[in-house]
């Protein structure tokens, strides 16, 4: 059995009931096969892959909090510190009822390679809780965040592990967590990113993941003789990534006609009204039915369905495994020529393979959505030098980073004879830097 197959088998045996983690490991290791085979003897002797797929450390803890009626609830908190070869652990905190250890491990594993691709000194980590922020009052959110940070603050710090937002964790939650960290540790430091501008946040962090997705997509299209100008784009999700992806796509001349949330989706033939979407989702925290009620050109549908709308470019920006093989077949049949992942692992492996086999340009999340964490690293730099950069300064750095990421993965794919396979290119380019640092630091 090959070394790669052996490690995949071990991961499945040692981490049962963690299908998302298995999927992430399989996707990465399968595309590293060619690199591993070229160095198999040494990697095996050093147990390099085993060290890569086992987190350096993981925490699981109780999070008790009191609701507005005096009822006590207990959620589970997680932080997985996966790999610190190239910098302090860095990665978001997901608050969603579906969260479990396997989901946090899949996200933390992906984060290692993504963070490496940014070219910035950040290692991989991820955390979160099965707490559901939906329908909670601000006081309940604060109670949860304070309790969560009361435990988490023992394991994080500006130079050790720097969490940020993810699904369900936005500026409000980061603010409550930052306040509690400062109160307990007595440190005013850049321990979290995605902070508000009045207390150490960076301009562009809010927009960064969505804008970065479009900067990379734009570069990928240009290098393949295509353009966003006049293109019809379908987006899934209606959260942070989806909103700013829609905004930038429209600024680049595309027409975005869909968005979705966990209960339904919108088809807006005149193009999504971003100001209205922000009002509904960011200010009112309401359902998409409110968007449809205020917009005559929009249709609201229950359930899942954005991939049925004919498009040139598809941008999945909601959650993992939201675009499956049937969806991929529909996209291809409707003439879609590019898919770029705003979310983490939104496309199943079968769907990814189908899209690639049918000539669809495919940008994987660990490259395409790296603009968020890259801008978080820029926030860390600003915090360290106690300065704030202008919007234009941060935005231009973000754009350069995304364009460089695309060329790095394009080059890596070409070096290994897989031209145009950006999944392999991203995994190889991300892996090379991490492995170099791991080798230099000895067996740790
Ligand atoms: N916020 C960030 O900077 C980054 C986020 N990501 C990824 O992007 C994706 C979206 O994250 P955000 O926009 O930050 O979160 P968010 O909480 O702002 O929005 C998430 C959106 O996805 C929808 N959604 C969540 N779970 C769903 C489900 N099970 N079925 C259907 N829709 C669902 C929600 O209704 C919401 O519209 C996630 O995969 C996240 O890991 C990746 C890189 C950075
Ligand atoms: O900005 C960060 O540190 C977190 C970003 C993140 O969680 C992600 O890239 O998935």
UniProtKB/TrEMBL annotation:
The keyword Oxidoreductase applies. It comes from Anaerostipes butyraticus. Gene3D superfamilies: Glutamate Dehydrogenase, chain A, domain 3 (1.10.285.10), Leucine Dehydrogenase, chain A, domain 1 (3.40.50.10860), NAD(P)-binding Rossmann-like Domain (3.40.50.720). NCBIfam families: PRK09414.1. Belongs to the Glu/Leu/Phe/Val dehydrogenases family. Transmembrane segments: none annotated. This is Glutamate dehydrogenase. GO terms for cellular component: cytosol. The record marks 166 as: Important for catalysis. The active site is at residue 126. PROSITE patterns: GLFV_DEHYDROGENASE (PS00074). CDD domains: NAD_bind_2_Glu_DH (cd05313). GO terms for biological process: glutamate biosynthetic process. The keyword Cytoplasm does not apply. One of its GO terms (molecular function) is nucleotide binding. It comes from the Bacteria. NAD(+) binds at residues 209, 240. Homohexamer. Keywords: NAD, Nucleotide-binding, Oxidoreductase. SMART domains: ELFV_dehydrog (SM00839). Substrate binds at residues 90, 111, 114, 165, 376. Residues 202-442 form the Glutamate/phenylalanine/leucine/valine/L-tryptophan dehydrogenase C-terminal domain.
């Amino acid at each position: 059995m090959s070394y790669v197959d052996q490690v995949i088998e071990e991961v499945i045996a040692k981490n049962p009931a963690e299908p998302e983690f298995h999927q992430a490991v399989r996707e990465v290791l399968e595309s590293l096969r060619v690199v591993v085979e070229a160095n198999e003897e040494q990697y095996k002797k050093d147990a390099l892959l085993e060290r890569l797929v086992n987190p350096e450390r993981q925490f699981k803890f109780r999070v008790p909090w009191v609701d507005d009626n005096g009822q006590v609830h207990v959620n589970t908190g997680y932080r997985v510190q996966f790999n610190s070869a190239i910098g302090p652990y860095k990665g978001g905190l997901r608050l969603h009822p579906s969260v479990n250890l396997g989901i946090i491990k899949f996200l933390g594993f992906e984060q290692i390679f993504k963070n490496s691709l940014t070219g910035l000194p950040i290692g991989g980590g991820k955390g979160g809780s099965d707490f559901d922020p939906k329908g909670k009052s601000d006081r309940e959110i604060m109670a949860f965040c304070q309790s969560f940070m009361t435990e988490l603050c023992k394991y994080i710090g500006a130079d050790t592990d720097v969490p940020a937002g993810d699904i369900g964790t936005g500026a409000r939650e980061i603010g409550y967590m930052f306040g509690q960290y400062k109160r307990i540790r007595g440190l005013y430091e850049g321990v979290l990113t995605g902070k508000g501008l009045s207390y150490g946040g960076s301009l562009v962090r809010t927009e960064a993941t969505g804008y970065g997705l479009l900067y990379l997509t734009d570069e990928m299209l240009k290098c393949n003789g295509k353009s966003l100008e006049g293109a019809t784009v379908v987006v899934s999700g209606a959260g942070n990534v989806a909103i700013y992806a829609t905004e930038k796509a429209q600024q680049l001349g595309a027409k975005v006609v869909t968005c979705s949330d966990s209960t339904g989706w919108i088809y807006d033939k005149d193009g999504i009204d971003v100001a209205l979407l922000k009002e509904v989702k960011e200010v009112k925290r309401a359902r998409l039915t409110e968007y449809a009620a205020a917009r005559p050109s929009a249709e609201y549908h229950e359930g899942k369905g954005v991939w049925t709308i004919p498009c040139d470019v598809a941008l999945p920006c909601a959650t993992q495994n939201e675009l499956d093989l049937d969806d991929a077949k529909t996209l291809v049949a409707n003439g879609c020529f590019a898919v770029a992942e705003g979310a983490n692992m939104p496309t199943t492996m079968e769907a990814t393979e189908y899209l690639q086999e049918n000539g669809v340009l495919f940008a994987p999340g660990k490259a395409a959505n790296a603009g968020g964490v890259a801008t978080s690293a820029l926030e860390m730099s600003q915090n360290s030098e106690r300065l704030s950069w202008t919007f234009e300064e941060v935005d231009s750095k973000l754009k350069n980073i995304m364009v460089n990421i695309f060329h790095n993965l394009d080059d890596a794919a070409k070096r290994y004879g897989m031209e145009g396979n950006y999944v392999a290119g991203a995994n190889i380019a991300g892996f090379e830097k991490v492995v170099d640092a791991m080798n230099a630091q000895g067996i740790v």
